[in-house]
Design a protein that fits this description.
Blueprint: H1 6-19, H2 24-43, H3 49-70, E1 79-86, H4 93-104, E2 107-116, H5 118-128, E3 132-136, H6 141-155, E4 163-167, H7 173-179, E5 183-184, H8 188-198
Parallel strand pairs: 1-2, 1-3, 3-4, 4-5
Helix pairs in contact: 1-3, 2-3, 3-4, 5-6
Bound molecules: cobalamin (B12).
Amino acid sequence: MSDLDDEAVLEALRRLMAEAPTEAGKAMDACREGMEDVGRRFEAGEYYLSDLVFSGEIMTDAVNIIKPGLLQAGVASLGKVIICTVKGDLHDIGKNIVISIFSAAGFDVIDLGFDVAPDVIVKTAQENDVKIIGLSGVLTLAVDAMKASVDAFTKAGMRDKVKIIIGGCPVTEIVKDYTGADAWSLSPQEAVGICRNWL
Ligand code: B12
């Protein structure tokens, strides 16, 4: 992945799905690590923006191949959840993976897309009576946008009516505390478990 060798990545994943589909989660972690290396090589000036775009395309194709292995058996609808990438951040590959996994787990997902303003998230939650909000972001500035989104629920007097989970590469326990979110995770599968417990 980090060498942007799309044929090698996709062929390896096709083989994995034929031989050991239960290992799809590990393959996803490996692809993400590869993407992190792409980011490092971009920072070092070795890769250009076009390489970032290409890495995103490989990741999307990779996820499409391993998705059946990632998805758990479908269950009856668990309830609604809003998922979006926060204001100022245009990265949506991770968000889309989270949506696939939440949908497959039985959540009714409202996908607000990327670069989503806090008031749009609050309004959508109000209008659709949504109790769980998933915020994604990969830029450092996404951390402040996540905090602004959580604060918007407080200002609207709705903070105790919703649970908010955040994710994306800059997210840690410290970021969770800073933003005021209820939980954080980098693993969509783990996040499904957390949200099931909330329900
Ligand atoms: C692909 C990519 C792009 C693509 C995005 C395509 C797309 N449709 O998303 C393009 C080329 C458009 C792009 C643009 C830019 N990018 Co960019 N990009 C990346 C790259 C290489 C990979 C991101 C990615 O998709 N990772 C794979 C996914 C699967 O991982 P993930 O997002 O972390 O998601 C997983 C988990 O975190 C979790 N998760 C994610 N969201 C959520 C939400 C919840 C609720 C939960 C529970 C879990 C969860 O689940 C996912 C699956 O496991 C990263 C490098 C990196 N380290 O991530 C840089 C990176 C994020 N980009 C960076 C930069 C600088 C930019 C640009 C500013 C470049 C420029 N000069 O224009 C622009 C930003 C534009 C903007 N305003 O957003 C920097 C950010 C630096 C910073 N500290 O802020 C990075 C880190 C690269 C680097 N090291 O310099 N980028």
